[in-house]
Design goal:
4 domains; alpha+beta; 550 residues; single chain; Serine Threonine Protein Phosphatase 5, Tetratricopeptide repeat; globular; 4-stranded antiparallel beta sheet; Rossmann fold; Alpha-Beta Plaits; 6-stranded mixed beta sheet; 51% helix
Length: 550
Protein backbone atom coordinates (compact mmCIF):
# COMPACT_ATOMS: atom_id res chain seq x y z
CA UNK A 1 0.00 0.00 0.00
CA UNK A 2 1.42 3.36 -1.05
CA UNK A 3 -1.31 5.82 -0.02
CA UNK A 4 -3.75 6.49 2.81
CA UNK A 5 -7.25 7.88 2.33
CA UNK A 6 -9.48 9.72 4.82
CA UNK A 7 -11.24 6.57 6.03
CA UNK A 8 -8.00 4.78 6.86
CA UNK A 9 -6.39 7.85 8.45
CA UNK A 10 -9.45 8.34 10.67
CA UNK A 11 -9.20 4.71 11.77
CA UNK A 12 -5.47 5.13 12.42
CA UNK A 13 -6.07 8.27 14.49
CA UNK A 14 -8.78 6.61 16.58
CA UNK A 15 -6.58 3.54 17.08
CA UNK A 16 -3.71 5.75 18.24
CA UNK A 17 -6.04 7.48 20.68
CA UNK A 18 -7.34 4.12 21.94
CA UNK A 19 -3.82 2.84 22.53
CA UNK A 20 -3.06 5.97 24.54
CA UNK A 21 -6.24 5.59 26.58
CA UNK A 22 -5.38 1.97 27.41
CA UNK A 23 -1.80 2.77 28.42
CA UNK A 24 -2.28 6.15 30.11
CA UNK A 25 -1.67 4.85 33.64
CA UNK A 26 1.60 3.27 32.57
CA UNK A 27 2.64 6.60 31.03
CA UNK A 28 1.60 8.40 34.22
CA UNK A 29 4.01 6.21 36.15
CA UNK A 30 6.90 7.40 33.99
CA UNK A 31 6.73 10.86 35.53
CA UNK A 32 10.10 11.61 37.09
CA UNK A 33 8.77 12.51 40.52
CA UNK A 34 6.83 9.57 42.00
CA UNK A 35 4.01 11.86 43.18
CA UNK A 36 0.45 10.43 43.23
CA UNK A 37 -0.55 13.07 40.67
CA UNK A 38 1.36 11.56 37.74
CA UNK A 39 -0.60 13.12 34.92
CA UNK A 40 1.23 13.05 31.59
CA UNK A 41 -0.76 10.08 30.33
CA UNK A 42 -4.02 11.53 31.63
CA UNK A 43 -3.39 14.95 30.10
CA UNK A 44 -2.46 13.54 26.70
CA UNK A 45 -5.46 11.19 26.78
CA UNK A 46 -7.95 13.94 27.63
CA UNK A 47 -6.43 16.10 24.89
CA UNK A 48 -6.75 13.46 22.19
CA UNK A 49 -10.20 12.37 23.45
CA UNK A 50 -11.47 15.86 22.75
CA UNK A 51 -10.39 15.33 19.14
CA UNK A 52 -11.86 11.80 19.09
CA UNK A 53 -15.23 13.27 19.97
CA UNK A 54 -14.98 15.66 17.01
CA UNK A 55 -13.84 12.93 14.62
CA UNK A 56 -16.67 10.60 15.63
CA UNK A 57 -19.11 13.42 14.87
CA UNK A 58 -18.03 13.84 11.22
CA UNK A 59 -20.88 13.16 8.80
CA UNK A 60 -19.03 13.76 5.53
CA UNK A 61 -15.58 12.21 5.95
CA UNK A 62 -12.82 13.76 3.85
CA UNK A 63 -9.24 14.59 4.69
CA UNK A 64 -10.34 18.22 5.02
CA UNK A 65 -13.14 17.51 7.53
CA UNK A 66 -10.93 15.03 9.37
CA UNK A 67 -8.12 17.57 9.62
CA UNK A 68 -10.46 20.23 10.97
CA UNK A 69 -11.94 17.87 13.56
CA UNK A 70 -8.55 16.70 14.84
CA UNK A 71 -7.10 20.21 14.95
CA UNK A 72 -10.11 21.91 16.51
CA UNK A 73 -10.82 19.15 19.04
CA UNK A 74 -7.27 18.76 20.30
CA UNK A 75 -6.72 22.52 20.45
CA UNK A 76 -9.65 23.12 22.78
CA UNK A 77 -9.15 20.00 24.84
CA UNK A 78 -5.41 20.51 25.37
CA UNK A 79 -4.27 20.00 28.98
CA UNK A 80 -0.82 20.06 30.52
CA UNK A 81 2.46 20.65 28.71
CA UNK A 82 2.46 17.30 26.93
CA UNK A 83 -1.21 17.70 25.97
CA UNK A 84 -0.66 21.18 24.53
CA UNK A 85 2.41 20.00 22.61
CA UNK A 86 0.45 17.00 21.29
CA UNK A 87 -2.33 19.36 20.13
CA UNK A 88 0.23 21.49 18.30
CA UNK A 89 1.80 18.43 16.66
CA UNK A 90 -1.66 17.44 15.42
CA UNK A 91 -2.50 21.00 14.40
CA UNK A 92 0.62 21.34 12.24
CA UNK A 93 0.17 17.86 10.76
CA UNK A 94 -3.43 18.55 9.74
CA UNK A 95 -2.50 21.82 8.03
CA UNK A 96 -0.51 19.84 5.47
CA UNK A 97 -3.06 17.13 4.71
CA UNK A 98 -6.37 18.94 4.34
CA UNK A 99 -5.96 19.82 0.66
CA UNK A 100 -5.29 16.22 -0.42
CA UNK A 101 -7.52 13.25 -1.22
CA UNK A 102 -4.84 10.66 -0.47
CA UNK A 103 -1.53 10.78 1.40
CA UNK A 104 1.72 9.23 0.18
CA UNK A 105 5.02 8.96 2.05
CA UNK A 106 6.26 12.38 0.90
CA UNK A 107 3.07 14.17 1.92
CA UNK A 108 3.00 12.36 5.27
CA UNK A 109 6.64 13.24 5.95
CA UNK A 110 6.05 16.91 5.21
CA UNK A 111 2.95 16.91 7.39
CA UNK A 112 4.83 15.33 10.30
CA UNK A 113 7.61 17.90 9.87
CA UNK A 114 5.08 20.74 9.88
CA UNK A 115 3.63 19.34 13.10
CA UNK A 116 7.04 19.39 14.75
CA UNK A 117 7.71 22.93 13.52
CA UNK A 118 4.36 24.10 14.95
CA UNK A 119 4.99 22.40 18.31
CA UNK A 120 8.48 23.88 18.72
CA UNK A 121 7.09 27.36 18.06
CA UNK A 122 4.47 26.88 20.81
CA UNK A 123 7.12 26.30 23.47
CA UNK A 124 9.11 29.36 24.50
CA UNK A 125 12.19 27.41 25.63
CA UNK A 126 12.11 23.97 24.03
CA UNK A 127 13.96 21.38 26.08
CA UNK A 128 15.63 18.40 24.46
CA UNK A 129 15.01 14.96 25.90
CA UNK A 130 11.25 15.48 25.80
CA UNK A 131 8.30 14.72 23.53
CA UNK A 132 9.63 17.42 21.19
CA UNK A 133 12.92 15.54 20.71
CA UNK A 134 11.11 12.28 19.95
CA UNK A 135 8.81 14.06 17.50
CA UNK A 136 11.80 15.68 15.78
CA UNK A 137 13.50 12.29 15.44
CA UNK A 138 10.35 10.86 13.83
CA UNK A 139 10.04 13.81 11.44
CA UNK A 140 13.69 13.80 10.38
CA UNK A 141 13.60 10.07 9.64
CA UNK A 142 10.35 10.44 7.70
CA UNK A 143 11.84 13.19 5.53
CA UNK A 144 14.98 11.13 4.96
CA UNK A 145 13.09 8.04 3.77
CA UNK A 146 10.04 9.50 2.03
CA UNK A 147 11.39 10.10 -1.48
CA UNK A 148 12.66 6.54 -1.88
CA UNK A 149 9.95 4.75 0.09
CA UNK A 150 8.69 1.72 -1.85
CA UNK A 151 5.68 1.15 0.36
CA UNK A 152 4.15 2.70 3.47
CA UNK A 153 4.55 -0.37 5.66
CA UNK A 154 8.34 -0.38 5.56
CA UNK A 155 8.31 3.44 5.74
CA UNK A 156 6.25 3.40 8.94
CA UNK A 157 8.31 0.57 10.46
CA UNK A 158 11.57 2.47 9.95
CA UNK A 159 10.11 5.75 11.22
CA UNK A 160 8.70 4.08 14.36
CA UNK A 161 12.00 2.34 15.00
CA UNK A 162 13.78 5.70 14.87
CA UNK A 163 11.22 7.25 17.21
CA UNK A 164 11.75 4.49 19.76
CA UNK A 165 15.53 4.80 19.38
CA UNK A 166 15.36 8.54 20.16
CA UNK A 167 12.98 7.83 23.04
CA UNK A 168 15.47 5.43 24.61
CA UNK A 169 18.12 8.17 24.34
CA UNK A 170 16.06 10.76 26.27
CA UNK A 171 17.65 9.78 29.63
CA UNK A 172 21.03 10.71 28.15
CA UNK A 173 19.71 14.18 27.29
CA UNK A 174 17.99 14.87 30.60
CA UNK A 175 19.99 13.77 33.66
CA UNK A 176 16.87 13.77 35.83
CA UNK A 177 15.39 11.03 33.61
CA UNK A 178 18.57 8.98 33.80
CA UNK A 179 18.70 9.25 37.58
CA UNK A 180 15.07 8.18 37.92
CA UNK A 181 15.61 5.32 35.47
CA UNK A 182 12.78 6.30 33.11
CA UNK A 183 12.33 7.59 29.56
CA UNK A 184 10.43 10.81 28.91
CA UNK A 185 6.74 10.21 29.61
CA UNK A 186 5.51 12.63 26.91
CA UNK A 187 7.77 11.03 24.31
CA UNK A 188 6.50 7.60 25.33
CA UNK A 189 2.92 8.85 25.01
CA UNK A 190 3.62 10.05 21.47
CA UNK A 191 5.11 6.69 20.48
CA UNK A 192 2.09 4.90 21.96
CA UNK A 193 -0.18 6.99 19.70
CA UNK A 194 1.96 6.29 16.62
CA UNK A 195 2.19 2.56 17.37
CA UNK A 196 -1.57 2.33 17.79
CA UNK A 197 -2.02 4.10 14.45
CA UNK A 198 0.38 1.66 12.78
CA UNK A 199 -1.55 -1.33 14.16
CA UNK A 200 -4.69 0.02 12.45
CA UNK A 201 -2.76 0.56 9.23
CA UNK A 202 -1.71 -3.10 9.31
CA UNK A 203 -5.32 -4.18 9.66
CA UNK A 204 -5.16 -5.29 13.28
CA UNK A 205 -8.58 -5.65 14.89
CA UNK A 206 -8.91 -2.86 17.48
CA UNK A 207 -11.76 -2.05 19.83
CA UNK A 208 -12.49 1.59 19.01
CA UNK A 209 -15.07 2.14 21.76
CA UNK A 210 -13.99 4.79 24.21
CA UNK A 211 -14.67 5.48 27.85
CA UNK A 212 -17.37 8.14 27.67
CA UNK A 213 -16.67 9.23 31.21
CA UNK A 214 -13.05 9.91 30.42
CA UNK A 215 -13.70 11.93 27.32
CA UNK A 216 -16.35 13.99 29.04
CA UNK A 217 -14.27 14.72 32.12
CA UNK A 218 -13.77 18.43 32.68
CA UNK A 219 -12.19 20.62 35.28
CA UNK A 220 -14.63 21.80 37.88
CA UNK A 221 -15.00 25.53 37.64
CA UNK A 222 -15.09 27.44 40.89
CA UNK A 223 -18.32 28.21 42.79
CA UNK A 224 -18.90 31.41 40.86
CA UNK A 225 -19.86 29.30 37.83
CA UNK A 226 -22.21 27.00 39.72
CA UNK A 227 -23.58 28.90 42.65
CA UNK A 228 -26.79 30.21 41.11
CA UNK A 229 -27.80 28.61 37.84
CA UNK A 230 -29.68 31.32 36.05
CA UNK A 231 -29.65 29.79 32.57
CA UNK A 232 -31.04 26.33 32.19
CA UNK A 233 -29.78 25.08 28.83
CA UNK A 234 -26.17 24.26 28.03
CA UNK A 235 -26.07 24.93 24.29
CA UNK A 236 -23.18 23.87 22.03
CA UNK A 237 -22.77 23.83 18.28
CA UNK A 238 -20.31 24.41 15.47
CA UNK A 239 -20.86 27.02 12.75
CA UNK A 240 -19.51 25.96 9.35
CA UNK A 241 -18.79 29.38 7.90
CA UNK A 242 -19.96 30.43 4.47
CA UNK A 243 -18.31 33.83 4.77
CA UNK A 244 -15.39 35.39 6.59
CA UNK A 245 -15.83 35.59 10.38
CA UNK A 246 -13.94 38.77 11.32
CA UNK A 247 -12.66 39.83 14.71
CA UNK A 248 -15.45 42.40 14.80
CA UNK A 249 -17.99 39.64 14.08
CA UNK A 250 -16.55 37.67 16.99
CA UNK A 251 -16.79 40.63 19.39
CA UNK A 252 -20.39 41.41 18.34
CA UNK A 253 -21.50 37.76 18.51
CA UNK A 254 -20.01 37.36 22.00
CA UNK A 255 -21.79 40.53 23.07
CA UNK A 256 -25.09 39.17 21.75
CA UNK A 257 -24.60 35.85 23.51
CA UNK A 258 -23.86 37.75 26.74
CA UNK A 259 -27.26 39.42 26.46
CA UNK A 260 -29.05 36.06 26.42
CA UNK A 261 -26.83 33.92 28.65
CA UNK A 262 -23.47 33.28 30.27
CA UNK A 263 -20.55 30.78 30.32
CA UNK A 264 -19.76 31.83 26.76
CA UNK A 265 -17.08 30.41 24.51
CA UNK A 266 -16.86 31.68 20.95
CA UNK A 267 -13.68 30.58 19.19
CA UNK A 268 -13.03 30.78 15.47
CA UNK A 269 -10.63 28.34 13.90
CA UNK A 270 -10.08 28.35 10.14
CA UNK A 271 -13.53 27.78 8.60
CA UNK A 272 -15.50 26.93 11.73
CA UNK A 273 -16.65 28.64 14.92
CA UNK A 274 -17.16 26.70 18.14
CA UNK A 275 -19.99 28.09 20.30
CA UNK A 276 -20.85 27.29 23.91
CA UNK A 277 -23.44 29.25 25.90
CA UNK A 278 -25.74 28.73 28.88
CA UNK A 279 -29.09 30.31 28.03
CA UNK A 280 -32.80 29.98 28.59
CA UNK A 281 -33.55 30.33 24.86
CA UNK A 282 -31.17 28.22 22.74
CA UNK A 283 -33.17 29.16 19.64
CA UNK A 284 -31.97 32.76 19.82
CA UNK A 285 -28.32 31.69 19.78
CA UNK A 286 -28.98 29.30 16.91
CA UNK A 287 -30.86 31.91 14.84
CA UNK A 288 -28.03 34.42 15.14
CA UNK A 289 -25.42 31.78 14.31
CA UNK A 290 -27.27 30.84 11.12
CA UNK A 291 -26.44 34.28 9.70
CA UNK A 292 -22.79 33.13 9.46
CA UNK A 293 -23.25 29.69 7.99
CA UNK A 294 -24.66 26.22 8.53
CA UNK A 295 -24.70 24.44 11.89
CA UNK A 296 -23.45 21.05 12.96
CA UNK A 297 -22.91 19.12 16.19
CA UNK A 298 -25.85 20.85 17.90
CA UNK A 299 -26.15 19.76 21.53
CA UNK A 300 -28.63 21.18 24.06
CA UNK A 301 -28.72 19.87 27.64
CA UNK A 302 -31.12 20.84 30.43
CA UNK A 303 -28.80 21.47 33.34
CA UNK A 304 -31.42 21.07 36.02
CA UNK A 305 -33.04 17.98 37.47
CA UNK A 306 -36.78 17.42 37.14
CA UNK A 307 -37.44 18.37 40.72
CA UNK A 308 -36.06 21.86 39.94
CA UNK A 309 -38.86 22.56 37.48
CA UNK A 310 -40.06 25.63 39.35
CA UNK A 311 -36.56 27.08 39.32
CA UNK A 312 -36.48 26.62 35.54
CA UNK A 313 -39.71 28.57 35.14
CA UNK A 314 -38.41 31.39 37.29
CA UNK A 315 -35.11 31.49 35.45
CA UNK A 316 -36.45 33.55 32.56
CA UNK A 317 -37.21 36.42 34.91
CA UNK A 318 -33.79 36.07 36.50
CA UNK A 319 -32.16 35.97 33.07
CA UNK A 320 -33.92 39.13 31.94
CA UNK A 321 -32.88 40.88 35.12
CA UNK A 322 -29.26 39.76 34.76
CA UNK A 323 -29.16 40.82 31.12
CA UNK A 324 -30.37 44.25 32.21
CA UNK A 325 -27.77 44.37 34.98
CA UNK A 326 -25.01 43.20 32.66
CA UNK A 327 -25.93 45.90 30.16
CA UNK A 328 -25.51 48.51 32.86
CA UNK A 329 -22.37 46.98 34.29
CA UNK A 330 -19.24 48.98 33.56
CA UNK A 331 -16.44 46.98 32.06
CA UNK A 332 -13.41 46.90 34.38
CA UNK A 333 -9.96 47.86 33.30
CA UNK A 334 -8.30 44.85 34.97
CA UNK A 335 -9.50 41.40 36.02
CA UNK A 336 -7.83 38.31 37.47
CA UNK A 337 -8.14 34.57 36.84
CA UNK A 338 -6.31 32.07 39.00
CA UNK A 339 -6.01 28.30 39.10
CA UNK A 340 -6.61 26.98 42.61
CA UNK A 341 -6.16 23.54 44.19
CA UNK A 342 -8.21 23.69 47.38
CA UNK A 343 -11.03 25.55 49.09
CA UNK A 344 -8.63 27.29 51.45
CA UNK A 345 -6.52 28.61 48.62
CA UNK A 346 -9.72 29.61 46.85
CA UNK A 347 -10.78 31.76 49.78
CA UNK A 348 -7.36 33.42 49.88
CA UNK A 349 -7.54 34.30 46.18
CA UNK A 350 -11.10 35.61 46.49
CA UNK A 351 -10.08 37.79 49.44
CA UNK A 352 -7.28 39.20 47.28
CA UNK A 353 -9.77 40.25 44.60
CA UNK A 354 -9.42 37.45 42.05
CA UNK A 355 -12.50 37.50 39.80
CA UNK A 356 -12.57 33.88 38.71
CA UNK A 357 -11.09 30.65 40.00
CA UNK A 358 -10.50 27.49 38.04
CA UNK A 359 -10.36 24.39 40.19
CA UNK A 360 -7.52 22.25 38.95
CA UNK A 361 -3.80 21.94 39.25
CA UNK A 362 -1.89 18.82 40.06
CA UNK A 363 -4.52 16.13 39.82
CA UNK A 364 -6.41 17.62 36.89
CA UNK A 365 -4.96 20.29 34.63
CA UNK A 366 -7.49 22.75 33.17
CA UNK A 367 -7.86 22.63 29.40
CA UNK A 368 -7.55 25.50 26.95
CA UNK A 369 -11.34 25.57 26.74
CA UNK A 370 -11.63 25.85 30.53
CA UNK A 371 -9.38 28.90 30.29
CA UNK A 372 -11.51 30.38 27.51
CA UNK A 373 -14.65 29.86 29.61
CA UNK A 374 -13.04 31.74 32.48
CA UNK A 375 -11.88 34.58 30.21
CA UNK A 376 -15.43 34.95 28.86
CA UNK A 377 -16.76 35.34 32.40
CA UNK A 378 -14.46 38.20 33.39
CA UNK A 379 -15.70 41.55 32.08
CA UNK A 380 -12.38 43.41 31.85
CA UNK A 381 -10.15 44.95 29.19
CA UNK A 382 -7.00 43.35 30.60
CA UNK A 383 -7.04 39.99 32.36
CA UNK A 384 -4.12 38.57 34.34
CA UNK A 385 -4.00 34.77 34.46
CA UNK A 386 -2.08 32.90 37.17
CA UNK A 387 -1.66 29.22 36.17
CA UNK A 388 0.12 28.33 39.44
CA UNK A 389 1.52 25.17 37.91
CA UNK A 390 4.26 24.81 35.28
CA UNK A 391 2.10 22.23 33.52
CA UNK A 392 -0.74 24.71 32.94
CA UNK A 393 1.22 27.66 31.53
CA UNK A 394 1.10 26.44 27.92
CA UNK A 395 -2.70 25.97 28.04
CA UNK A 396 -3.05 29.50 29.42
CA UNK A 397 -0.89 30.88 26.61
CA UNK A 398 -2.91 28.92 24.07
CA UNK A 399 -6.12 30.50 25.42
CA UNK A 400 -4.42 33.89 25.20
CA UNK A 401 -3.67 33.32 21.51
CA UNK A 402 -7.32 32.42 20.85
CA UNK A 403 -8.70 35.53 22.62
CA UNK A 404 -9.09 38.59 20.40
CA UNK A 405 -11.30 41.02 22.32
CA UNK A 406 -9.34 41.22 25.58
CA UNK A 407 -5.72 41.80 26.52
CA UNK A 408 -4.56 38.63 28.26
CA UNK A 409 -1.42 38.68 30.42
CA UNK A 410 -0.20 35.26 31.53
CA UNK A 411 2.05 35.45 34.59
CA UNK A 412 3.99 32.14 34.51
CA UNK A 413 3.46 31.22 38.16
CA UNK A 414 4.55 27.64 38.82
CA UNK A 415 3.15 27.28 42.34
CA UNK A 416 0.13 28.60 44.21
CA UNK A 417 2.29 30.66 46.61
CA UNK A 418 3.82 32.39 43.58
CA UNK A 419 0.29 33.20 42.39
CA UNK A 420 -0.61 34.69 45.77
CA UNK A 421 2.53 36.83 45.74
CA UNK A 422 1.81 38.00 42.20
CA UNK A 423 -1.73 39.13 43.06
CA UNK A 424 -0.54 40.89 46.24
CA UNK A 425 1.94 42.92 44.21
CA UNK A 426 -0.63 44.29 41.79
CA UNK A 427 -0.78 48.10 41.95
CA UNK A 428 -3.93 49.61 40.35
CA UNK A 429 -2.17 52.91 39.55
CA UNK A 430 0.42 51.16 37.38
CA UNK A 431 -0.02 50.04 33.77
CA UNK A 432 -0.50 46.40 32.79
CA UNK A 433 3.08 46.32 31.51
CA UNK A 434 4.48 47.77 34.75
CA UNK A 435 2.46 45.33 36.85
CA UNK A 436 3.55 42.40 34.71
CA UNK A 437 7.21 43.37 35.16
CA UNK A 438 6.80 43.77 38.93
CA UNK A 439 4.96 40.45 39.27
CA UNK A 440 7.61 38.60 37.28
CA UNK A 441 10.30 40.02 39.56
CA UNK A 442 8.44 39.21 42.77
CA UNK A 443 7.56 35.60 41.94
CA UNK A 444 11.27 34.89 41.48
CA UNK A 445 11.75 35.61 45.19
CA UNK A 446 9.26 32.89 46.22
CA UNK A 447 10.62 29.43 47.02
CA UNK A 448 8.12 26.60 47.39
CA UNK A 449 8.33 23.18 49.00
CA UNK A 450 5.51 20.66 48.51
CA UNK A 451 5.25 17.78 50.97
CA UNK A 452 3.68 14.55 49.70
CA UNK A 453 4.28 10.78 49.51
CA UNK A 454 5.94 8.52 46.96
CA UNK A 455 3.89 5.98 44.99
CA UNK A 456 6.89 4.02 43.69
CA UNK A 457 10.59 3.40 44.22
CA UNK A 458 13.04 5.65 42.36
CA UNK A 459 16.30 7.61 42.67
CA UNK A 460 16.34 11.41 42.30
CA UNK A 461 18.89 14.10 43.21
CA UNK A 462 21.15 11.54 44.90
CA UNK A 463 18.26 10.49 47.13
CA UNK A 464 16.98 6.94 47.31
CA UNK A 465 13.17 6.99 47.42
CA UNK A 466 10.91 4.09 48.37
CA UNK A 467 7.18 3.67 48.00
CA UNK A 468 5.44 5.31 50.95
CA UNK A 469 8.30 7.71 51.73
CA UNK A 470 7.49 11.34 52.48
CA UNK A 471 9.04 13.78 49.99
CA UNK A 472 9.69 17.51 50.02
CA UNK A 473 9.72 18.66 46.39
CA UNK A 474 11.18 22.10 45.68
CA UNK A 475 11.19 24.37 42.65
CA UNK A 476 14.21 22.67 41.14
CA UNK A 477 14.27 19.20 42.64
CA UNK A 478 14.05 17.11 45.75
CA UNK A 479 14.51 18.95 49.06
CA UNK A 480 14.10 16.12 51.53
CA UNK A 481 13.06 12.47 51.85
CA UNK A 482 12.01 10.70 55.04
CA UNK A 483 9.27 8.76 56.80
CA UNK A 484 7.69 11.63 58.76
CA UNK A 485 5.76 14.62 57.39
CA UNK A 486 6.96 17.12 60.02
CA UNK A 487 10.61 16.11 59.76
CA UNK A 488 10.57 16.33 55.96
CA UNK A 489 8.80 19.71 56.17
CA UNK A 490 11.49 21.07 58.52
CA UNK A 491 14.32 19.80 56.31
CA UNK A 492 12.63 21.30 53.25
CA UNK A 493 12.35 24.71 54.93
CA UNK A 494 15.99 24.46 55.99
CA UNK A 495 16.96 23.94 52.36
CA UNK A 496 14.96 27.01 51.27
CA UNK A 497 15.73 29.56 54.01
CA UNK A 498 18.70 31.91 53.59
CA UNK A 499 19.89 35.20 55.12
CA UNK A 500 17.47 37.23 52.99
CA UNK A 501 14.37 35.22 53.94
CA UNK A 502 11.66 37.17 55.76
CA UNK A 503 8.44 35.13 55.57
CA UNK A 504 7.57 31.43 55.87
CA UNK A 505 4.00 30.50 54.90
CA UNK A 506 2.47 27.10 55.65
CA UNK A 507 -0.64 26.01 53.72
CA UNK A 508 -2.01 22.77 55.19
CA UNK A 509 -3.98 20.32 53.05
CA UNK A 510 -6.77 17.79 53.49
CA UNK A 511 -4.55 15.20 55.19
CA UNK A 512 -2.72 17.53 57.60
CA UNK A 513 -4.68 19.00 60.50
CA UNK A 514 -4.75 22.62 61.61
CA UNK A 515 -3.27 21.56 64.95
CA UNK A 516 -0.36 19.79 63.24
CA UNK A 517 0.23 22.80 61.00
CA UNK A 518 0.18 25.28 63.88
CA UNK A 519 2.61 23.13 65.88
CA UNK A 520 4.92 23.01 62.84
CA UNK A 521 4.61 26.79 62.58
CA UNK A 522 5.62 27.27 66.21
CA UNK A 523 8.67 25.05 65.76
CA UNK A 524 9.73 26.95 62.64
CA UNK A 525 9.33 30.26 64.49
CA UNK A 526 11.80 29.02 67.11
CA UNK A 527 14.22 27.78 64.47
CA UNK A 528 14.08 30.94 62.32
CA UNK A 529 13.39 33.86 64.65
CA UNK A 530 14.33 36.32 61.88
CA UNK A 531 11.31 35.18 59.82
CA UNK A 532 7.60 35.74 60.24
CA UNK A 533 5.64 32.47 60.08
CA UNK A 534 2.05 32.28 58.81
CA UNK A 535 -0.25 29.25 58.91
CA UNK A 536 -3.16 29.10 56.46
CA UNK A 537 -5.68 26.49 55.34
CA UNK A 538 -4.95 25.47 51.74
CA UNK A 539 -7.34 22.54 51.66
CA UNK A 540 -5.38 20.90 48.83
CA UNK A 541 -5.42 17.16 48.13
CA UNK A 542 -2.29 15.05 47.63
CA UNK A 543 0.07 17.47 49.41
CA UNK A 544 0.13 17.39 53.23
CA UNK A 545 1.33 20.94 53.19
CA UNK A 546 2.74 23.49 50.79
CA UNK A 547 5.37 25.77 52.30
CA UNK A 548 6.71 28.98 50.78
CA UNK A 549 9.74 31.01 51.79
CA UNK A 550 10.24 34.55 50.57
Amino acid sequence: MNTIDAKLLAKMFLAGAKNLEVKKEWINELNVFPVPDGDTGTNMTLTIMSAVKEVNGITDLTLETLAKAISSGSLRGARGNSGVILSQLLRGFTKRIREHEELDAVTLARAIDKGVETAYKAVMKPKEGTILTVARGVADKALELAEDAEDLQSFFEDVLAEGNRVLQRTPEMLPVLKEAGVVDSGGQGLMVVLEGAFDAFMGKEIDLTFDAGESAKVVKISPQAEADIKFGYCTEFIVVLDKKFTEQDEVEFKSYLSSIGDSIVCVADDEIVKIHVHTNDPGLAIQRALTFGSLSRIKIDNMREEHQEKLIKDAEKVAAKQAEEDAQKTRKEVGFISVSIGEGFGEIFRDLGVDYLIEGGQTMNPSTEDMLNAIARVNADTIFIFPNNKNIILAANQAKALTKDKNIVVIPTKTVPQGITAVINFVPEKSAEENEKAMLEEIQRVKTGQITYAVRDTHIDDKEIHQGDIMGIGDHGMLSVGRDVVSVAKESVEAMVDDESELISIYYGEDFSQEEAEKLGEELEEMYDFCDVEVNCGGQPIYYCIISVE
